[in-house]
Design brief:
Low-confidence stretches: 196-204, 207-211
Shape: elongated
Distance between the termini: 84 Å
Mean pLDDT: 83
CATH superfamily of the largest domain: Cytochrome c-like domain
Helix content: 25-40%
Radius of gyration: 30 Å
Order of helices and strands: HHHHHHH
Strand content: under 5%
Largest sheet: none
Number of strands: 0
Number of helices: 7
């Protein structure tokens, strides 16, 4: 009798194990806590009855912008570039007080291969004759550029230089430009503008005219 019970239990256990296995590799098999596997959230552009337009995706409220987004409304035109050279309001008020050292590493990553570590226009790509005609930052080569016009070029590109807007944040762009202005002073044999700026505890870029092209 004992052997019969043992045999019955063994066969039953084997049957449970065998039938519980799922050989269909396209399905996850049986689940016991569906909330752990099936997300209750809506997928992007999914149809839904939750909203009047029948879609998950909703347009932003008029007059709002995404968190961390800074609209840059100067157009990518010759007139826009000229405006960036003359409109002082496009440059942050605390630009001179910013620490140039904060932009050095970013400059070496994104700029030095063309413009050179000294800002003389002799980067490694120029040395290897991969590209030519890269200007140095000194007054003799670029006499009329401004911090805002440099920002404009980073946003849209100019000549053989492409846009870097998608690679750098608003703060990173201004940090690079501040370091470029230090290199510009060195290339021009002048004192850095920070020597004339009042001391501040922390230099924070704050301006209303900022990031991505509208």
């Amino acid at each position: 009798m004992t052997n019969v019970i043992r045999t019955t239990l063994a066969v039953s256990a084997f049957a449970v194990v065998a039938t519980s296995c799922n050989y269909d590799k396209t399905t996850p098999g049986y689940t016991y806590m569906d909330d752990m596997y099936v997300s209750p959230s809506l997928e992007t552009y999914q149809a839904t009855e939750m909203f009047d337009n029948g879609m998950e995706a909703q347009t932003p409220v008029e007059g709002t912008i995404p968190r961390g987004y800074h609209p840059y409304q100067v157009p990518n035109t010759p007139e826009g570039y000229a405006l960036s050279k003359t409109d002082a309001s496009l440059t942050p008020a605390n630009f001179a007080a910013m620490d140039p050292a904060e932009g050095k590493e970013l400059y070496n990553v994104f700029c030095s291969h063309c413009h050179g570590t000294k800002g003389d226009g002799v980067g490694i790509l120029v040395e290897n004759e991969k590209i030519l005609g890269v200007p140095g930052y000194g007054n003799t080569r670029l006499p009329d550029i401004t911090p805002a016009s440099a920002y404009h070029v980073i946003m849209y590109g100019k000549g053989i230089m492409g846009s870097h807007a998608s690679q750098l944040t608003f703060e990173e762009r201004w940090k690079i430009i501040r370091y470029v202005w230090k290199l510009r002073a060195e290339q021009s044999g002048m004192d850095d503008i920070s020597a004339e700026a009042p001391a501040t505890e922390e230099a924070v870029v704050e301006t209303e005219t900022t990031e991505e092209p509208a």
